[in-house]
Design a protein that fits this description.
This protein has 392 residues and is of the alpha+beta class. Helix content is 31%, strand content 21%.
């Protein structure tokens, strides 16, 4: 059995490798570190399960989706939790409920060199590693079998990830009885960046001889929710600010530019996102202080129950679905015109070369940073004036 797929058609979820009864499929990295399935023909028995389980397609299945999904604006009642999160602490609220039932939470943490991987957590302390955005594709190798074992052991399990990762887990378990104890939360995503480029970027940041202690892709301490900075803190306590290639969309996975999940047809029980545009909705008060507000899309009957059980920890308001539309609930990210050239240059000339050529240093970098600083400092000053003008 050959998995005949173009790079555009594979999201790297590892569902095919997880379901193969002969372990004939392994996930191998390309030049940028994105994982793709490789089949050992000597082990393959042509059962077709790998093809059947693949849900990265336009006609993916949503067997439990409500006809009319429910939408809420919300954030944690405890502002300490909001300040430590990158929007309204939606993940914390939903995962706290699962952990309180003795359940297991799967989310994205870090391994060596801050490499994003999916991990398993049974305590709040372990779960807290999963907080915050990680704009690099996580490795899901071996995770689905772990989830399956936890479900067989009778545990409640929460899995959170990008829409394609959640769809893969949903497709793997289908309508089996194990799905009853599986709670799925996906995020509204605009793409995942290259693991190898991120790895090399960390090496660059540590080339001064200091080791990094933490990374934060959107630190709300600097500019608030709307204009958080990327911060990198070293073990000596020094914090640096850098602008990572992710924001140029130049090193996203090819499949992200053709993502079929940029709509309201979700395979999860609950979808969460930054509620960009909340100030224009009926829940405007939840976003007025620039601390962060989450969007909840409740997609299934199980999601309705889950939200109802967890909502006591929230300050929330129902919102008409038409007030929740944002870019990546409508269309995928647009491919950077130099995407293929970037990969070629990285593979043949290395990280230092692409860092210089594609704007990480030099005049392009400073132009981008100047624009960000202008927006960061001018917008808060102009916001009260704009509010007055809108009310006239």
């Amino acid at each position: 059995m050959r998995i005949e797929k173009h790079k555009n058609d594979c999201c790297g979820c590892a569902a095919c490798a997880s379901i193969c009864p002969r372990k004939a499929i392994t996930m191998k990295p390309d030049a940028l570190g994105f994982l793709y399935p490789v089949v050992d023909e000597s082990l393959c028995i042509d059962c077709g399960r790998c093809v059947k389980v693949c849900s990265f397609k336009n006609n993916y299945d949503t067997p439990f989706r409500l006809d009319a999904i429910k939408a809420y604006a919300g954030r944690h009642r405890d502002l300490k939790q909001v300040n430590k999160s990158q929007s309204g602490a939606a993940f914390v609220v939903l995962s706290d409920y699962i952990l309180a039932q003795g359940g297991v939470v799967y989310g994205v943490g870090y391994e060596d060199k801050f490499s994003p991987v999916h991990k398993r957590a049974t305590t709040v302390e372990e779960r807290d590693e999963f907080r915050g955005s990680k704009y690099v594709q996580s490795d899901m190798t071996g995770i689905i079998p772990q989830i399956k074992q936890d479900l067989k052991d009778g545990k409640l399990v929460m899995f959170t990830g990008t829409a394609c990762q959640v769809s893969a887990v949903s497709a793997y378990f289908g309508k089996s009885s194990l799905r009853e104890r599986l709670f799925l939360m996906d995020i509204v995503c605009h793409g995942v960046a290259a693991p190898y480029v991120w790895r090399d970027y960390i090496d660059f940041l540590e080339s001064n001889g200091q080791k990094l202690a933490s990374v934060n892709f959107r630190d709300k301490r600097y500019g608030g929710w709307h204009y958080g900075e990327e911060t990198f803190t070293y073990v000596n306590g020094c914090t640096q600010f850098y602008h990572y290639h992710f924001y140029s969309l130049i090193n996203l996975r090819y499949s992200c530019y053709q993502c079929p999940y940029t709509n309201y047809k979700r395979t999860s029980d609950i979808t969460v996102a930054d509620f960009w545009g909340v100030e224009k909705s009926c829940a405007a008060d939840l976003g007025v202080d620039n601390k962060g507000c989450s969007l909840f899309l409740v997609n299934t009957d199980k999601g309705v129950i889950w939200f109802d059980k967890a909502k006591d920890a929230l300050e929330y308001l129902p919102v008409p679905i038409e007030q929740t539309s944002q870019l990546h609930l409508r269309v995928p990210s647009v491919m950077h015109k130099q995407r293929a050239k970037f990969e070629y240059d990285y593979a043949t000339k290395g990280f230092a070369y692409v860092r210089k050529k594609y704007g990480e240093v030099g005049i392009n970098y400073y132009k981008a940073m100047f624009k960000r600083k202008i927006v960061k400092w001018i917008y808060p000053l102009a916001k009260p004036i704009l509010a007055v003008l809108r009310n006239k």
